């Protein structure tokens, strides 16, 4: 497990330690600690209002910090002027200068830093190439697509070689149909830039595909910080399982013949269960969308659930069902005859019992 309360600011990369942010009486962020190593991308993700943007803005110096510390490249920047921090910010609306060409936008920060003209031209050319904008160098932002404008903002932020790149909801302003392709494109550009990056997003797919590590927040606090695989395979709690994977996590009791969940009302035979290790200390059962099936069995290996909702999804009907106050998703063939309640069983091998290391 990553140490969530590492109190130092002297490490390379970005170190946010025990960060607290207040707006009047509202504590928007409480005791959040996140580290971004040089060369990695950390995605801060969570539902609306959980404090993601506040955290990013505090790193950029745009929101005052009520407690904790922020270190960047070995310096304590907690109270430093935004312009002197060494951060490159790409805001949600990209904020490119409409009256300047693509190349002019990218050169802006270099001019402000009085970089000699030949080095400036070289750096602009490098950034144009990295973001595949060379052909469009002379255009104005108004003559570009949303995705191209985003690349201009990215190139402009990276041009000045920041110690950390900050991206606020990088794909939110773009057409949903294009987002998948743009996500892959952004991921490739970020890895070739080699710059430590902090991305804020509310989209779990974006977090999973862009983050080398994910910081999952809820109501101002950090719930889990780890690699996408760690969060996917061993979620800290039911909220993480649901938010990131639409999965259900149940407290479980293990016995030689299997596992009991829902206070012993559902007993799943050992031969139907996969197992995985957990670092979270308790035995739990992880059920995904493909973990369950509707069955004719009515023995202890099945549980009765009330059908709450049925949704046609093309190749299947996705049922939302409620068993003893827990809501599950289960897919059935489109022509299945479904009553008001169903009997649910685990698809052998598709449910994972997370077991603490001895
Ligand atoms: N300037 C402000 N003044 C007062 N409250 C604020 C201010 N900015 C944010 N908040 C509050 O702080 C909390 C965290 O907001 P923040 O914008 O950081 O969340 P978020 O996770 O980025 O949400 P979203 O995904 O909706 O942008 C929210 O309750 C919000 O209403």
UniProtKB/TrEMBL annotation:
ABC transporter domain ranges (all copies): 14-244
Family matches, as PROSITE patterns: ABC_TRANSPORTER_1 (PS00211), ABC_TRANSPORTER_2 (PS50893)
InterPro entries (alphabetical): AAA+_ATPase (IPR003593), ABC_SmlMolc_Importer (IPR050093), ABC_transporter-like_ATP-bd (IPR003439), ABC_transporter-like_CS (IPR017871), ABC_transpr_FbpC (IPR015853), Mo/tungstate-bd_C_term_dom (IPR008995), P-loop_NTPase (IPR027417), Transp-assoc_OB_typ2 (IPR013611)
Species this protein is from: Nocardiopsis tropica
Presence of the UniProt keyword Membrane in the record: yes
Keywords: ATP-binding, Cell membrane, Ion transport, Iron, Iron transport, Membrane, Nucleotide-binding, Transport
Name the UniProt record assigns to this protein: ABC transporter ATP-binding protein
Molecular function per GO: ATP binding
